[in-house]
């Protein structure tokens, strides 16, 4: 059976799209957080408060990993950069797991195994 026409191909593709979409949302929100802190945005402003509240759940596990670098009210939040990297790695791993469940023909599997052996 040709793996490109497997009935599982479309759900796998949709699954990978969902993972990349969720990652994109998290990465963009964290990027806003990083830039707002870097530029010294007013934490009492509505938009700033919204972004900090939205991203706190994603940044919280990393908040004490590094010291905060601060110069005249502007914060370089290394932990946000770390969070963005970790979430990208997790999404990449999930995508790889999805792709491992893709149907593969015997000749295609043999070629891939040969490539991995080199």
Please write out the topology:
Blueprint: H1 9-38, H2 46-59, E1 69-71, E2 74-76, H3 78-100, H4 106-117
Antiparallel strand pairs: 1-2
Quick structural summary:
This protein has 118 residues and is mostly helical. Helix content is 67%, strand content 5%.
Please characterize this protein's 3D structure.
This protein is mainly alpha-helical and 118 residues long. The chain has one domain (7-117). It is built from four helices and two strands, in the order ααββαα. The chain has helices at residues 9-38, 46-59, 78-100, 106-117; strands at 69-71, 74-76. The chain has a two-stranded antiparallel sheet. The protein is elongated. The two termini are 27 Å apart.
Number of DSSP-assigned strands: 2
**Outline, from the CA principal axes?**
elongated
Elements, N to C (H/E): HHEEHH
What proportion strand? 5-15%
Key structural traits:
118 residues, mainly alpha, 2 strands
């Amino acid at each position: 059976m040709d793996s490109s026409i497997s009935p599982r191909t479309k759900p796998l593709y949709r699954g990978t799209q969902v993972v990349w979409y969720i990652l994109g949302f998290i990465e963009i929100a964290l990027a806003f957080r990083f830039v707002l802190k870097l530029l010294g945005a007013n934490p009492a402003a509505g938009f700033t408060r919204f972004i900090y509240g939205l991203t706190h759940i994603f940044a919280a596990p990393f908040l004490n990993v590094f010291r905060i670098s601060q110069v005249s009210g502007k914060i370089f939040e290394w932990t946000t950069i770390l969070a963005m990297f970790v979430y990208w790695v997790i999404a990449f791993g999930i995508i790889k797991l999805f792709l491992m469940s893709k149907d593969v023909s015997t000749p295609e599997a043999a070629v891939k195994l040969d490539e991995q052996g080199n």
